[in-house]
Amino acid sequence: MKPKIGITCSHSFLDVFPIKGVEFYYLPVYYVRALKKVDAVSFILPSEDETVIDNIDGLLVSGGGDINPNCYEEEIKEKLVKVCPERDLFEIKMIKEAYKRDIPVLGICRGIQAINVAFSGNLYQSIPTDIKHMQSPPVYMPTHWIECGKWIGNILGAKIRVNSFHHQCIKDLAEGFEINAKASDGVIEGIQHKSKPIYGVQFHPEWMYEKYPIFLKIFEEFVKIVKKG
Questions:
Q1: Is residue 34 within 8 Å of 205, Cβ to Cβ?
Q2: pLDDT digit string (tens) for 158-170?
Q3: Domain map of the chain by residue range?
């Protein structure tokens, strides 16, 4: 049986119909397509009911808007992008519950940040660096180098260029985690839990794998972990 991967999604009011202010859950298609490529089934998880975790084998925490700094006990210092308190709370609860149940977790972009915040780490609200971490399109284009080790290094090698679409990043790493990838400016680009199957990357492999197939291996390895149970 194919493993069932639940994917968190964005939640906001969108003006895409003639009627304004319709509320939506939405997700870029690339996560689903990447998981389909590695023979997994995707389920989009709306932030309404945490019991959905009973029906999944793995959790993918997707990219999206900023996490409210209140979640890590800071006041808002910088301009934020599409803050959604409901999504913040839902993802933090889902990540913690996955930890308790040994359900594997993969966080991408916002997802790596949500993992860190869920376990009492914090974030830079605006990255203090000269490297451009919010690139221009095309989204698949690699723009800066990262050095890799441990889990992500075994997949991508010791050094590789990745894409980048974020203005926030991990500041103080949560207890129980270790860094497995960094940019040359020190920005944390990959983390993993020391004893649980929880992983995060700051870049977007789902946008890169069609042009650069090596990035599909991140999803392949994650699904292998999910299948092991």
A1: yes
A2: 999 999 999 999 9
A3: 4-228
